[in-house]
Design brief:
InterPro entries: Ribosomal_L11_MeTrfase_PrmA, SAM-dependent_MTases_sf. With 228 residues, the chain is α/β, with parallel strands linked by helices. It has one domain: Rossmann fold, CATH 3.40.50.150. Helix content is 34%, strand content 23%. The chain contains seven helices and nine strands. The structure holds S-adenosylmethionine. S-adenosylmethionine (SAM) binds next to helix 3, helix 4 and strand 4. The site of S-adenosylmethionine has 26 residues, from helix 3, helix 4 and strand 4.
């Protein structure tokens, strides 16, 4: 879908209307269109379509994304001069952090049309270039990406299964693969080693707590116990 199609214009208008540009709690270097009131926006999205509409993930900086964006911002050498893929980009937080840290190119992939609009608006607001793409690439590969980043993607079993397969293919093809995760149920920890951990401020209305302990993990391409 083209950037200026009527549908993407409508999505951009929706993002502007229901979220306001504000610094991210744990990565204040980045400003995003964020919703103040999670529940209200959720109901509105549901009410408008009366269907299995995805919740407005794009309107919040999830703990996993905040931790990963913090790590990328503090360790720019990870992405500097490299081609980066931010998978399940949501607001675009991690993609924007990578672009700010000097990535040669950043591709942000999402399955939610409004997230794609939010990524484009948020990249523009932060003065960086991010290529936002509406696609489900989990059964495919990471293309020419040298670094693959995924913030907060292990929250459902079905998603986690497909995600892990995709990320393992990318790691085995030579990419560095990092995820940010606040202890979601379906993260296969034995596949990863820890790079950093942070206490990340989150929306109490979304997470029932004010702070989530969040780990930045790097995926090991080989199964645990296998010889390298
Ligand atoms: C919890 S949000 C995390 C967003 C962002 N990475 C962050 O940390 O703030 C998960 C995101 O995954 C996206 N998503 C779900 N399935 C996907 C898929 N197959 N491919 C790409 N994105 C997907 C959702 O639309 C949602 O925006």
């Amino acid at each position: 879908m083209g950037h200026n199609s009527p549908v993407s214009e409508l999505s951009a208008a929706f993002v502007r209307l229901h979220a306001r540009l504000a610094p991210v709690a744990f990565v204040p270097e980045v400003r995003l269109h964020q919703a103040d009131e999670p529940i209200g926006l959720w109901e509105l999205t549901e009410g408008e379509f009366r269907s299995a509409q995805p919740p407005p993930f794009w309107a919040f900086a999830w703990a996993g994304g905040q931790g990963l964006a913090r790590y990328v911002t503090d360790h720019p050498e990870l992405v500097d001069g490299r081609r980066v893929l931010d998978l399940a980009s949501g607001s675009g937080l991690v993609a924007i952090a990578a672009a700010r840290a000097g990535a040669a190119a950043v591709r942000a992939v999402e399955v939610d049309e409004r997230a794609v609009a939010a990524v484009a608006l948020n990249a523009e607001a932060n003065g960086v270039r991010v290529d936002a793409e509406l696609a489900d690439i989990l059964d495919s590969d990471a293309g020419d990406a040298e670094v693959v980043l995924a913030g907060d993607v292990f929250y459902s079993e079905a998603m986690a299964r497909r995600m892990l397969r995709f990320l393992l293919r990318a790691a085995r093809a030579g990419a560095r693969v990092l995820v940010g995760d606040p202890g979601r149920a379906f993260l296969p920890r034995e596949r990863f080693h820890e790079l950093a951990a942070y206490d990340v401020p989150v929306s109490e209305a979304l997470e029932s707590v004010r702070v989530k302990h969040t780990t930045v993990w790097e995926l090991d391409p080989n199964p645990p116990g296998a010889r390298r």
